[in-house]
Amino acid sequence: MSSRANKTQEILLPASGIFIFFTLLAGLTLNLLPWQGLSLLIRPDFIVLILLFWCINQPRKIGLGTAWFLGLVMDVADGSLFGQHALAYTLVTFAALILHRRVLMFPLLQQALHIFPILLLLQLTLLLFRLIVGVPYVEWSYFLPSLAGMLLWPPLSFLLQQPQRWTNKPDNSVPVQSSR
């Protein structure tokens, strides 16, 4: 048998809808902060990262409608062409829903390598809209948020899974949700 088959996989509690809502709200808040300088240049789309996490880990609780709505919210918040974020978020969510079983087979570092092309799809879709409306020049640094998102994937995944982890009570063997 392979070493992967010998590893025990952790069973996580299902995420509550309220927790998912507040994580998406936190992502929206992070997107709307007044970033400046280098941090603005490399800032990933936090809503997309959190949306990808939930699409991969809880695909029955989040889907294309949520992605479309959040994209429209970002279009209004950014003052950009109405529908560009909505379409990009929906494409990224669709890719995540298709690949969610495959991505879950890998450890977090290898999951990040699967997330990178999905984040590039987001950037390319938004770039296409920019070219259509007449922005003629795009620097190579335009794609840095995809790289930053890939690097943030492991800590973000670890952080968002913490409320779902099981722990054992010392007095009996009934698992309870961790309080971290």
What does this molecule look like?
This protein is mainly alpha-helical and 180 residues long. It has one domain (15-132, 141-166). It has 8 helices and 2 strands, in the order ααααααααββ. The chain has helices at 3-6, 17-32, 37-42, 46-57, 64-78, 84-104, 108-133, 144-161; strands spanning 166-168, 175-177. The chain has a two-stranded antiparallel sheet with strand order 1-2. Strand 1 (166-168) and strand 2 (175-177) form a beta hairpin. The longest helix is centred in the C-terminal third of the chain and has 26 residues, at 108-133. The model is unreliable at 1-7 (pLDDT under 50). This is Rod shape-determining protein MreD. It is found in: Cell membrane. It is a multi-pass membrane protein. The chain crosses the membrane at residues 12-33, 79-100, 112-134, 140-160. InterPro entries: Cell_shape_determining_MreD, MreD_proteobac.
Write the layout of secondary structure elements.
Elements: H1 3-6, H2 17-32, H3 37-42, H4 46-57, H5 64-78, H6 84-104, H7 108-133, H8 144-161, E1 166-168, E2 175-177
Antiparallel strand pairs: 1-2
Helix pairs in contact: 2-4, 4-6, 4-8, 5-6, 6-7, 7-8
> Quick one: how many beta strands?
2
Q: So what's the oligomer here? A: single chain
H/E series? HHHHHHHHEE
Residue runs with pLDDT of under 50 for 5 or more positions: 1-7
User: Taking strands numbered 1, 2, ... along the chain, how are they ordered across the largest sheet?
Assistant: 1-2
Into which percentage range does the β-strand content fall? under 5%
Q: What is the typical, i.e. mean, pLDDT?
A: 89
Assign the structural class, choosing from mainly alpha, mainly beta, alpha/beta, alpha+beta, or little secondary structure.
mainly alpha
How many discrete structural domains? 1
Distance between the termini: 35 Å
Family: Belongs to the MreD family.
Organism: Sulfurirhabdus autotrophica
Keywords: Cell membrane, Cell shape, Membrane, Transmembrane, Transmembrane helix
GO cellular component, one term: plasma membrane
